[in-house]
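so my prof wants the structure for this chain in the tokens format not the other one, which i didnt know existed until like an hour ago. anyway here's the sequence
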Amino acid sequence: MWKKELGLFFGSCEKKSFQIQISKLLKLLLNDKALRPLKTRNRLEGALCSLVESGAIKSWRYREIDEDLLLDCKNWFYYWKQLSIKVLL
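here's what i got, hopefully its the right format
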């Protein structure tokens, strides 16, 4: 389901690249529903990878990510939500 919503969202962008903070993207997708941190991260990354495979977007990546902090941090989900994603359309 997120693949369709993200495809429509990125399809409406007029720029060739787009940057958005994960927390803002989750607000668009979840409408304040309860979060399951690991499932949410996997679902978002899976949807973005599917959009790349289908050709809807060229690529995506995290901007300025500290993998060590993300892996070792007890509050990794809070840190992850503050990250931004760059999408090439």
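also thought this was worth mentioning. The radius of gyration is 13 Å.
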